Amino acid sequence: MNRLKFLFIFIFIVSVVLLARVYFLSVKSNTHYEELSKRNYNKKVYEVPSRGIIKDRNGESLAMNRLGFSINIKPHLNSYKKKHILDESIILINKHFPKYETKDLYKQYMNYDSSYKHDFVKIVDFIAYDDFLDKYTLFNSHDGIKIKSEVKRIYPHGRNGSHIIGYVGKASKKDIQINGFSKYSGITGKNGLEKFYNDKLQGQLGVKSIKVNALNKEVAVLDQKKPSSNNDLIISLDIKLQKYIQEIFKGKSGAVVVMNAQNGEVLAAGSYPEFDNNIFVDGITAKEWNKLKNDFNHPFTNKLIKGKYPPGSIIKMGVALSFLENGVSENYIVDSVGAIKIGNRYFRDWKQNGHGKVDFVRALRVSSDEFFYKGSLEIGINKISKTLSKYGIGEKTGIDLSNEHYGTNPNKSWKREKYKLPWYIGETVITAIGQGEMLVTPMQMARYTAFIATGKLPRPHFSKDNYEEPIKIETNKKHMHIIRKGMRQVVTSTEGTAWKHTRNTKVEIAAKTGTAQVIAIPQSEKKRMKESELEYYHRSHAWLTSYGPYQASKKYVVTVLVEHGGHGGSAAGEIISKIYNKLLEMAYIKNK
């Protein structure tokens, strides 16, 4: 009897356990397995929008997309039973497109195929539409191949404006970490406007939630969001003007900026020599990269915002304003004899015997060094530096290009912090004429010239998205009149430093020349230079910055730097004249 009772109890306990397990599996685990089911049978498919087109102010395309196709091979074809499909696919590609070698195609496939990969493996990124269309049916009917539509970024104007437009390139792992979108597009903006406005140009991903069966076949679309379509960028650049400047700058190295002085809108900007940004789209070869890297004229450097140069005499307008606002009389006159002596060292004027009696206007007109030497000793470096910082010297301009450099606006505390050394009087006088430790970028000089023209400091920009109201700087109108008068006489007076070389300008302009000594040539480059090249690369840089029309309410700034050009007037005067005449021809400027 006891055994029978024990048996019933055992059966009861087992039944309870079984019922509890059935309850857990059928009821409590339902939510868990339902979620797993969704993961197995619902999936998201992302659609990449077409990258936005970059257009100039007149609607001319500067960066656009070319239609084509990619060739993709089915994954998991490495097994003995399936390898013939892989072999046939690769042989087919090589037969019709011989530039793709079979060993490279196998390598590409092996690199990206894995047991975890279920998507087709892309082994040819892009073949142009016209080159592939007649072979589309042949390839698409092959069991191991899938053809997908693709777009390729192209730059129809090649070298023109390459530093401004920039380029796209294949997204690296770091790029994907920073910008998840590039995981799907495979590319990202690497330089110029392509980089600065990458988020706008790439747009927003489309996403489609679909239900699939066990064979991964689509059963139903559950939800869909289309990719963005309005991703274009319209900029202020005029590519016709840009091309014209490239032609007249041919054979020279340096930079040019043409900018609306009132609002900072950039009409043209060139860093020379330029490069063809199309070479970066598919990945630049080592040979091409070495050619760019080893060029002593540094075509890959955007000199507009990264090139740092002594400003030479074009800084004198700002220094003169500093004299005036710090108590130096408007009637201040220097008797220029050709040099001043500080301690046991002579600081010489560019004119050996000096200029005689020099006031503010004439100091700018003839670019008297001695006037600025002596004036700088009246107020000191700290006051000069403080004034120049208000005009953007030693500051980023805020232009819509990445990695802009600050330049250097030196003073006593700057030197103490950087070199742990005191400031010497001799450094004050050479800084006052734009030499020594002072370094600026061409874009800073264009912005600073816009301030001289208008009394406001604009933010240079290519897109209205980066527009900012110009900064109003409190100035004495009489002081500004003195500076502008001096600049006007640079091109109108027979003793003006740019008079001979700007006489063909059909627009009334004001300007200032500058000659900036080359501080040093990098030792790595020096070793590779021939003697004739060494002599050339030791020559001073030539500056000419200007604005015009002089009396008009709407003014344009034209700033030119010719590397190793020597004197600013002779090297850049004709270039400046031609640019203003072109602005007149293109109706940006209207002569009354």
Write the SSE topology.
Blueprint: H1 2-28, H2 30-41, E1 42-47, E2 54-55, E3 61-73, H3 83-96, H4 102-112, E4 121-128, H5 129-132, H6 136-140, E5 145-154, H7 162-165, E6 167-170, H8 173-178, H9 182-185, E7 187-191, H10 192-196, H11 198-202, E8 206-212, E9 218-225, E10 233-234, H12 239-248, E11 254-260, E12 266-272, H13 286-293, H14 316-325, E13 334-336, E14 339-342, E15 345-348, E16 356-358, H15 360-366, H16 369-379, H17 381-390, H18 412-419, H19 425-431, H20 442-454, E17 456-457, E18 471-472, H21 477-492, E19 510-516, H22 523-526, H23 531-537, E20 541-548, E21 556-562, H24 568-585
Parallel strand pairs: 2-10
Antiparallel strand pairs: 1-8, 2-3, 3-4, 3-5, 6-7, 8-9, 11-12, 11-21, 13-16, 14-15, 17-18, 19-20, 20-21
Helix pairs in contact: 12-24, 14-16, 14-17, 14-21, 15-21, 16-19
Summarize the structure.
By secondary structure, this protein is an alpha+beta fold. Helices cover 38% and strands 20% of the residues.
Strand content: 15-25%
Residues in helix, %: 25-40%
Low-confidence region ranges: none
Note the gap between the termini: 127 Å
Domain unit count: 2
Task: Tell me how many strands there are.
Answer: 21
> Mean of residue pLDDT?
89
- Helix tally equals 24
- The quaternary organization reads as single chain
CATH class assignment of the largest domain? Alpha Beta
The global form is: elongated
Largest sheet: 5 strands, mixed
Q: What is the CATH H-level superfamily of the largest domain?
A: DD-peptidase/beta-lactamase superfamily
